[in-house]
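Box 3.1 A note on notation
Throughout this textbook, protein chains are presented in two layers. The first layer is the amino acid sequence; the second is a C-alpha cell string describing backbone geometry. Keep the layers aligned when reading.
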Amino acid sequence: MLAGDGRDVSTDFLDAFERHRSDADLLFGNERWPNADQLYGFAAECGLKAVMQALGMRLRNDGGPKTRSYRVHIDRLWSEFHAFAAGRGAEPYAAMLPVENPFSDWHTDQRYYKSEAITETSAVKHREALERVHRVVSRARMDGRL
C-alpha cells in the first residue's frame, strides 16, 4: 500500500519486530524502563505475527490479521499463538515459548502511566520473554519460512 507521497506503508510484521526490538534495547541500555518495556511488548507481538503470517495466517487488505482473535496485543496474542500453531506443523515453534504468558501483566494502557510505575524488573522480565520470541523468529528464518 502506498501513502499519498509514494512511501510504502504496508504492514510488515518482521520489520516492525526488528525495529521495536532494536529501539527497546537502546532505551533499556539508557535505563528508560517504561518505554523499553512498551516496545518489548510491541516487538514480541510483531515477531509472533510475522511467524504466524509465514505459517499461513490470513491478512486483510490493510495487512492486519483477518481473524479477529489475532488482532490483539501480546498480553493476549501469546496464548493465541499457541492455539494457532497447534495442528499446523508449527508445534516446534510454540514449544519454544512457555504456555504461561510472561506478558500477561503488560498492557498498552501503561503508556499513560507515570514513569515510576514501570520498573526495571518489569522491563527485564519482558526483555527476557522477547528473547524467546526472537529465538522463534530465528528458527522460522532457519527453516526458510521467513
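Residues 13-142 form a domain with the Four Helix Bundle (Hemerythrin (Met), subunit A) fold (CATH 1.20.120). The chain has one domain: 13-142.
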